[in-house]
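Input chain follows. Return structure tokens only.
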Amino acid sequence: MSKIVPTPPPGFDDRSVEEQIDFVQFLWDRIASIPEQVPVPEWHKRILRERLEAYQANPTTGRSWEKVRADIDRKLQDR
């Protein structure tokens, strides 16, 4: 089922892509300023439960945040 895309506010399409992104980020920041009102989809919760269960079943298979972040930084530098 597809959702209807609302018409953007007047002048939005006349702005640069960077300005459009800034505007959308502003909107998201405004919405997220009250996190308890932001709905969490059930599929997000399901994935979190699955990952937590996998970790609890075998906690030594994961990697530390430091190693994950170093890998991400390395990949971003290679771009």
